[in-house]
Predict the 3D structure of the following.
Amino acid sequence: MALVVGVFACAAWAQPMPPAEAGSLDRLNSSPRHAEWISYAAAGGDKVDAWVVYPERPGPAPVVVVVHEIFGLNDWARAVADQFAAEGFIAIAPDFLSGKAPGGSGSKGLSVDAARSINSSLDPAEVVRRIDGAVAYTTSLPAATKKFGVVGFCWGGGISFLYSTLRPDLGAAAFFYGVAPPTDTLAGIFAPLLGLYGGSDARVTSTAAPAAAELKRLGKSFEYEVYQGAGHAFLRQQDGQAGANLEASRQAWPRVVKFLKDKLEGKVGMGPDAPQLISVQAALDDCCANDVPASEQAASLASR
């Protein structure tokens, strides 16, 4: 773990990155990349809506599954998927609220409070099945390779960390300010991990060090960074924390792109185009301090 205090390399500062929340729709409307709404099948006859964005590149691309915050699949999460496509990945952002809103709809049209309330009640087993379905859909596309990674934010960060304990074939997992799962579940991890945390987000960041110690003991690969002064959700709230969130974003985004290219494609350039669920009741990280991991339930199912 490294506590990041200074300025990242100048090249990193010039690296394109997702917009702050207020600029999300403009980014989507101005994107040159092909994107589309699709519906894919998940286990048990489930149907999930998702936003898929394709990179502009001559050959097949690895896949990145983007796991949204507790606020559902909003414009910001879709803009993040667009930026991953700009970096050369096929990005799929599932709407984990699909079928959960009134009338059987999903995130679209829900208020922030309504989305948070529904998201907090999601069954983690169903969430994992839906990620599995997203992986199956995208890796079967003619333009995709079979290599895939998962990246999550806030609640989605915790889910991504959890998912890494369940998929031995996962190529890489990265999580922005995601709560770590219980340490007694970490032996199931085979993929390399990257965690990106705010130094002023102790509720979440405090879970990283115990996980890192256990993963080191187990001989697993876990890199993580704590950005001094940055708060929770710093990539979305880039104007927060008196500039610390923006500096953290400028450093964290190139880091995650480099990590994913290295693990999924064997590339380290930073320019564009280049089981059974451990049931954790309630959301892992709600961006508003509503949720905590249920260690007892996780430990109970981990032994099965």
About this structure: The chain has ten helices and nine strands. The mean pLDDT is 87.
